[in-house]
Amino acid sequence: MDYKKYFPIFENKKNLVYLDSAASSLKPKCVIDKIDYYYNNICVNVNRGVYQLSYEATDLYEESRRVVAKFINAKENEIVFTRGASASLNLVANSYMDFINENDEIITTLQEHHSSFMPWLNVAKRKNAKIVYVPLTKDGKVTIENFKSVLTNKTKVVAINQVSNVLGYTNPIKEICKLAHEVGAIVSVDGAQSVPHMNVDVKDLDCDFLSFSGHKMCGPSGVGVLYGKYELLEKMPPVEFGGDMAQDVYEFEATYKDAPFKFETGTPLISEVIALKDAVEFLTNIGLDNVKKHELELKKYALEKLKDVKGITIYNNNLDSSLLTFNIDGVHPHDAASIFDKNNVCIRAGFHCAQPITRFLDQISTIRCSFYLYNDFHDVDMLVDSIIEARDFFMSF
Ligand SMILES: Cc1ncc(COP(=O)(O)O)c(C=O)c1O
Fold first, then answer.
1. Which fold has domain 288-395?
2. Mean pLDDT of 36-64
3. Among 92, 93, 154, which Cα is nearest to 121's?
4. The pTM is what?
């Protein structure tokens, strides 16, 4: 299936080989058109105007909440719109901080993106709580056995990604939630790299929170989602105050709206939220199983082609994720990236906002290639040719 045709950028940038979707995905026409539609036809604020156009904007905004909720099998009032996964992850930690006490333990992993565990580092410092890391296997995986080895009745929170943004492993979230709940802990899942690529059902996982970004799943940048179980959102305090989230405001007192609205102050990201619905519907129509299958075919093809290429270290040979993370031996990833760039191949070089796992790999930086539905075998050929060219140019192999 040729998915490139849905993405106008390929018409405008004929030679583009985009292999950096884990950083941000490209946008299909339906999403771009919806943003256009909003500004050309509606253009006004939500929740406040007492006129038809504002009702229309509010209806579209709330319709998006319904569609996003259905997408992850949540209830509508369990969806908070934020600025992105980072904002969602911070919101959980900053609000849930009220329920953390001295000597409580917060379990996380070395796999995390900085946005997943740094908010809890801050909580731990402020509350004199303790951060505890799940020991990883030698190839960087989280196992249930290793998780159990750090779970105690002091554990109050587990902050963990569903899919790592460096190695791409899928963590056993369902089992982790079950075990965490047995000791009374809550689980905040970073779904930034899972929700765009696989079916995620929050009821089935029984996670307490799930955070993800629109821009990594064909949606607009600037919008993110926080799912939270309603009974938790209900008791958690807001962390930002002001317009729209308040119920009654007096000189020295204020009451707040119910969740999710108490967490959404100020003018929201209107066109972004509205167009997120189109991204969700676009992915749903294609089917996330098909997206995943397509990505894995590409990764399999890439691994096959790289099998006999000398001078490359691949850190994740696994065939369950669409990320390919590697280094060209003796070549700095940024040097290699200059060759990729010359060939119009966009990849990511650096530590991917995940320094602990990069250090775990004994590296300061890696090259990450991430496949999505619009990539094809030609893109993989370009990637492999660029790897060989970079190796030969810098290493005179
Ligand atoms: C696993 C993971 N978590 C969180 C984030 C943060 O997402 P955002 O930059 O959209 O807030 C990213 C982005 O790269 C990510 O890959």
1. Aspartate Aminotransferase, domain 1 (3.90.1150)
2. 94
3. 93
4. 0.97
